[in-house]
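Protein entry
_____________
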Amino acid sequence: MQPTRILVAEDNELVALTLQAQLTSLGYHVVGVAADGAIAVAMVRELQPDVVLMDVRLPGIDGPEAAGQINDDTPRPVIFLTAYSDQETVHRIERCGAWGFLLKPVQATELAPAIGIALARFHEVQQLRQRVNELGETLEARKAIERAKGLLMQRLSLSEHDAYEYIRTRARDRRVRMKVIADEVLAGEQATTA
């Protein structure tokens, strides 16, 4: 199994080197170090790390803003590292979709649990998003099939069962999903009414 790939976004060179050493000793693969937020966003796009460890206060685009761009563009779990735990900082971190938060100086013993939990939650959320998308597609297919059945019942004087069988049989014969046939029936109706 490949080691977890991590991008470090930290402008303090000493802290970045310390993090790299800690992560490497824990068996992680550090794919790169970004010294500012804009570079971190670009590196996430390019390197596709599994996790991003990001300082809150970075030059240029700060950590929360960079994390927001990462979540919009190439979602990855972002764990924030900061020496600040004031209410405003914590709220900014919460609002940008952080997957974790560690106070500096970060101890090596804190990294593995934080990374493991962030990855586990991230994968759960990704699976839920995929399931929501699948359910949305299923719902749209059912709506199209129901509309197509209604048109076939009206146009060909078929029963509901026969209209369903008409769609199902054609889908099976052509080895396509029933939604494809339903969409064709609906497109044919739109063509005749246009």
